[in-house]
C-alpha cells in the first residue's frame, strides 16, 4: 500500500533522513520506533506532504506522492494524527471534526453522518460536542485527534506518538483503539517512543536511528531483539 524508497529529507544542512526505505502492506499495523531526533516525525511529515524530500520515492497504492500538497495526499487516503495532537483548541469538538472532513465538505450529509459515527464510537466526544476542544482531557483530545483524522475516511492512518504525555491507563485505551481500527480494515503506521506497547500490537516494525533504518522485522521478533531491548526497553 505504501512503499518508501531511499528517502532523503534535509533541513538546510541537517540531514534528518538519510535514505530510508520501508513498506506498509494493506491491513497491517507497522510500528516505527526510534529515539528523540531519529527522524520519525520528519518521515511522517514527508509522507504527508508537510515537508518536501530532497530525493527518493514515496508510492501510495502504486502512485508517486512525494512532493504532493498535503490536501491532495489526504484526498488520496492518508490521514495523520499529528504529534502533540494539535487539535483546534478554541473550536468546539464538533467543529474540529468538521475540519477533519474538509476534503468531503461538498457532501455535507456524509460529513454529518460521519460525525454521528464518531460520537457513537467515542460517546464522551458526543457529550462534549459543543465544548471547546482545549478543555478536554489529554486522552479525550487524543480521541478527538484520531476521530478528526478518520473524518477524511483514510485507508492509511498515520499516528505520530499517540501515547505521548498520557497516563498509563489512557495509553492502554489508545492502543486498544488502534487495534480496533485495524480490525475494521484500516492500515496503520504507528510512530512511538513507547516501543514495548507499540511493537506488541504491530505486525512488523522498523527501528530508525539518526535518519536510517537500522533494524526491521516482525513486531514480536523486534521485541526480543537484544539491541531493541537494550536501547528501547531498558533491559540488559
Ligand atoms: P522526536 O521524537 O523528538 O520528535 P523524531 O525522531 O521525530 O524525534 P525529528 O523531529 O524528525 O525526530 O528530527 C530529526 C532531526 O531533524 C533532528 O536532528 C532535528 O533536530 C532535526 N529537525 C527536525 N525538524 C527540524 C526543522 N524544522 N528544522 C531544522 N531541523 C529540524
TrEMBL record:
PANTHER family: BRANCHED-CHAIN AMINO ACID TRANSPORT SYSTEM,ATP-BINDING PROTEIN, HIGH-AFFINITY BRANCHED-CHAIN AMINO ACID TRANSPORT ATP-BINDING PROTEIN LIVF. Residues 2-235 form the ABC transporter domain. It comes from the Bacteria. Keywords: Amino-acid transport, ATP-binding, Nucleotide-binding, Transport. One of its GO terms (biological process) is L-amino acid transport. Transmembrane segments: none annotated. One of its GO terms (molecular function) is ATP binding. This is ABC transporter related. SUPFAM superfamilies: P-loop containing nucleoside triphosphate hydrolases (SSF52540). Belongs to the ABC transporter superfamily. SMART domains: AAA (SM00382).
Amino acid at each position: 500500500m505504501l512503499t518508501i524508497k531511499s528517502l532523503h529529507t534535509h533541513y538546510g544542512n541537517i540531514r534528518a533522513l538519510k535514505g530510508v526505505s520501508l513498506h506498509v502492506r494493506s491491513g497491517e499495523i507497522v510500528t516505527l520506533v526510534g529515539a528523540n531526533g531519529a527522524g520519525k516525525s520528519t518521515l511522517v511529515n514527508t509522507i504527508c506532504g508537510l515537508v518536501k524530500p530532497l530525493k527518493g520515492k514515496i508510492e501510495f497504492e502504486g502512485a508517486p506522492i512525494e512532493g504532493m500538497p498535503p490536501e491532495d495526499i489526504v484526498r488520496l487516503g492518508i490521514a495523520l494524527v499529528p504529534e502533540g495532537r494539535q487539535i483546534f483548541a478554541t473550536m468546539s469538538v464538533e467543529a474540529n471534526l468538521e475540519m477533519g472532513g474538509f476534503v468531503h465538505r461538498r457532501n455535507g450529509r456524509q460529513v454529518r453522518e460521519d460525525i454521528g459515527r464518531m460520537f457513537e464510537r467515542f460517546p464522551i466526544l458526543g457529550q462534549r460536542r459543543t465544548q471547546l476542544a482545549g478543555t478536554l482531557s489529554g486522552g479525550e483530545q487524543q480521541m478527538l485527534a484520531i476521530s478528526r483524522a478518520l473524518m477524511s475516511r483514510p485507508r492509511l492512518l498515520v499516528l505520530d506518538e499517540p501515547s505521548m504525555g498520557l497516563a498509563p491507563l489512557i495509553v492502554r485505551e489508545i492502543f486498544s483503539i488502534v487495534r480496533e481500527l485495524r480490525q475494521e480494515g484500516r492500515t496503520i503506521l504507528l510512530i512511538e517512543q513507547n516501543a514495548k506497547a507499540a511493537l506488541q500490537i504491530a505486525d512488523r516494525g522498523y527501528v530508525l536511528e539518526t535518519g536510517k533504518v537500522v533494524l526491521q522485522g516482525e513486531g514480536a521478533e523486534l521485541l526480543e531483539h537484544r539491541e531493541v531491548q537494550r536501547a528501547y526497553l531498558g533491559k540488559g
